[in-house]
Automatic annotation (TrEMBL):
This is DUF2182 domain-containing protein. Pfam families: PpoB2. Keywords: Membrane, Transmembrane, Transmembrane helix. The chain crosses the membrane at residues 81-106, 136-155, 162-181, 227-253, 265-285.
């Protein structure tokens, strides 16, 4: 006895086929436009991130007990309000995340647009934009949480020298934990969800809602999968260009390399090695 596929399953099957066999002139033009727009967005975000890094470096850092330095981005300066500082940080963080996540995200983004074409969406390009906005809204929300935590820790370190002295040791422990998390089954499950195909396209008035929900869902999965990597970035310094480049490469390797290569475990082993060196340095400094 055969069963009729559900509409959502049929749409997903059609989208998969569309990605593989779309060789029409219109399909090629759409692909070129998507690639050009994506490249322009990536370059814009990357240049803005580099510019912000330069601005943060010009602000200087405050030497702290324990041999490390506190970035002035965590404290309001020259009478600047906390709300302005928070808004600036969240905007900077979101653009930075776009620059780092786009290289690994673009294949999934293109598949979602193709799924919209296969489902007969009136404007699949606009649908893909909504999907992308939903995805990066998750990272913007994470940026708000990071700012609150970072500002609270900075204020505590300024008031409590003992806490400041413990920061290098705590950073080493965080990096070690991040490396261990990379090698865990928890990480493997979330990475598999990041690699999964985007959710189905809705119908009628539900098309836009489905796009937002699909983008938000993937954003949550990816944020969970990148939890350890993000912790390592925060220890290295939010506006450290070298750390950003390494994280971008790590995320791309995890998402785009064949699953059998276990790229996330290779990244985890590197993080553990770095954490051990940081731990030795922190202990030696004491």
């Amino acid at each position: 006895m055969t069963s009729t596929p559900r509409p959502d399953a049929a749409i997903a099957i059609a989208a998969t086929g569309a990605v593989g066999r779309d060789r029409s002139v219109g399909g090629q033009v759409s692909r070129r436009c998507f690639e050009a727009g994506s490249l322009a967005l990536l370059l814009t975000c990357a240049m803005a991130t580099v510019d912000w890094c330069a601005d943060m470096a010009a602000m200087g850092e405050l030497p702290m007990p324990g041999g490390w330095s506190l970035s002035m981005m965590w404290t309001p300066m020259c009478g600047r309000a906390w709300a302005d500082l928070a808004a600036s940080f969240i905007g900077m963080w979101t653009v930075m995340m776009m620059a780092m996540m786009l290289p690994a995200l673009l294949p999934a983004w293109w598949r979602y647009r193709q799924a919209g074409c296969a489902a007969g969406a009136r404007c699949p390009g606009w649908l893909a934009v909504q999907w992308g906005v939903g995805y990066f809204l998750v990272w913007a929300a994470l940026g708000a949480a990071v700012f609150v935590a970072g500002a609270a820790l900075a204020a505590s370190a300024l008031r409590l020298p003992m806490l400041a002295r413990a920061a290098p040791l705590a950073g080493a422990v965080v990096v070690l934990g991040a490396g261990a998390l990379q090698c865990s089954a928890w990480k493997a499950r979330r990475l598999a969800r990041c690699r999964a195909r985007p959710g189905p396209i809705g119908r009628g008035s539900m098309v836009s809602l489905a796009a937002w929900r699909s983008g938000l869902r993937l954003g949550l999965h990816c944020a969970g999968s990148c939890a350890g990597l993000m912790a390592g970035l925060l220890v290295a310094g939010v506006m450290d260009l070298g750390a950003m480049i390494l994280l971008t490469a790590a995320v791309g390797a995890e998402r785009l390399a064949p699953p059998d290569l276990r790229a996330e475990r290779v990244v985890g082993a590197i993080a553990i090695a770095a954490g051990l060196m940081m731990l030795a340095a922190a202990i030696g400094a004491d």
